[in-house]
Amino acid sequence: MKIxxxxxxxxxxxxxxxxxxxxxxAFLDWLAALVDEExxxxxxxxxxxxxxxxxxxxxxxxxxxxxxxxxxxxxxxVVVTAGNHDSPSFLEAAGALLARLQVHVVTGAAxxxxxxxxxxxxxxxxxxxVCAVPYLRDREMRVVEAGDSWEDRDRKLLAGIASHYRxxxxxxxxxxxxxxxxxxxxxxxxxxxxxGVVDDADAVRDLYVGSxxxxxxxxxxxxxxxxxxxxxxxxxxxxxxxxxxxxGAPLPMSFxxxxxxxxxxxxxxxxxxxxVDELAVPVFQRLERICGDAAAIxxxxxxxxLQEAACWLEIDYQGDEVAGALRARIEERLAGSRMELxxxxxxRLVARVLxxxxxxxxxxxxDRNEVFARCLDAHRVPGEQRPAxxxxxxxxxxxxxxxxxxxx
Length: 408
Hints:
By secondary structure, the protein is of the alpha/beta class. It contains 13 helices and 15 strands. It has helices spanning 21-38, 57-70, 88-93, 95-99, 112-115, 138-141, 150-179, 200-203, 294-306, 326-334, 347-355, 368-378, 386-407; strands spanning 2-6, 42-46, 77-81, 103-106, 116-120, 126-131, 185-190, 226-230, 236-238, 241-246, 263-270, 273-280, 286-292, 311-317, 339-346. Residues 203-212 and 404-408 have low confidence and may be disordered.
């Protein structure tokens, strides 16, 4: 029995407002080819198929086109569980139709019997038991009582999750005893396991129902021969257990993940043993982050030009001098190359402005004019130059406000 484990596709997710459908399509084409090449019996997708609960038509097209390509061929099965970014009702809407393609979709916490999926072998007998546990939401796992503290909430939530895995583990063990042979049992999950390494991109997301509630790996009982997890974007084992793994997001969700190796997990059950390997996902769109002053930025761009690099850029300007028309100068330097600037930040300016805020102030408490005035102070702009800059700033704000009203 050979399984491929993936998760966190986040179809439809942009990067700095840039659509990534071509990149996402390239990954799915590669994965479909890998499934065929490996002659995988089962594909597990452990949550966050889409990036939002209302995916675009293009994102839906990518998903369904992929499933029709890989599912049902030579008896292959696909198991998809919902993540916290997915809409349970949306994923389940096509569940009955997809079932005819041997695609099993599990979206919300249900009776364990509905989450236990039997995968037949070539002879039609059960060859694998999959405990397809989706993202377990707070309202499904605990009973709200008057006077509950945040500590009570977290304790009840963790107890509910542990109970859910215990119940489905017991059910799988009982079914295996009924079968009278050593059928492998695989569990799925979309959660934050204690000890998991969090990426920068993960840190700005809800890790578990809006908090940092971490699930102890001890809830994954010995009955589970492999645990296929999703939610964290870095591929990793949990608590040092080789058979409890995050496959990681196959595409970088931010420039912070740009240089990181992305993987899909291959799980092989043979002769009563399990072997797990990480298969590297190709880079479909190179991401490059450049930090430094104007000279360092220019030098790195020139290096990339010599390499004929085709990449998207995120630039953090960290120079001390006023960088007037910095974007225009960078775009001019990029002209004719295979590089595209997606984001430009003036990190030093932001640091200076924040450093000028009193202890009892917060940035949100300053209006836009006050923030601009702090910027002028940070750069020690002479008084005679300020009136013209303030007028230009006021005109820019007025134009933005008009555009916002039109958008509404």
